[in-house]
Specification:
It is built from 3 helices and 8 strands. The chain has 143 residues and is an alpha+beta fold.
């Protein structure tokens, strides 16, 4: 009887952990989509609120902290954004790594930046909110 109770308790806890992780995975994916939508909609205050104070980004042109990322994003005029499959790996219960492809149509500082990109982001939970702490993207090479 004790063994059955232990197995049942273990199964219930495993199911609870799985459903918790699934809801957090959905929340992280939605946070990533929301931050792109904020750029598209030119809601720069919303964009900034989604970044952690210790945010960093890496691009071919620069390595940014949060303030520079916000300044640079104001130069973007995004017409459309389409996401490929988003893969989320939890580093721990309050940190997630996401990789995905994204196709954008738009300009940055007047130059066409349309195309498909390979992207990576790291999110951490601060209180009840997921905040971006890292982002990088590189234009995908045509095969």
């Amino acid at each position: 009887m004790k063994k059955l109770l232990t197995l049942t308790t273990t199964a219930v806890l495993a199911l609870a952990a799985t459903s918790f992780a699934a809801s957090d995975k959905d929340a992280v994916i939605q946070a990533e989509k929301n931050i792109w939508q904020a750029v598209k909609d030119k809601k720069f205050d919303d964009f900034q609120k989604m970044l952690s104070a210790d945010f960093r980004s890496v691009y071919a042109s620069a390595i940014n902290k949060a303030a520079q990322e916000v300044a640079d994003i104001k130069k973007v005029d995004m017409k459309s954004v389409t996401f490929g499959e988003m893969d989320v790996v939890f580093i721990d219960k309050d940190a997630a790594l996401m990789t995905y492809q994204v196709t954008v149509q738009g300009t940055e500082d007047g130059k066409d930046v349309s195309g498909k990109y390979n992207a990576a982001s790291v999110w951490k939970k601060e209180g009840n909110d997921w905040k971006g702490v890292f982002h990088s993207e590189v234009k995908a090479v045509a095969e």
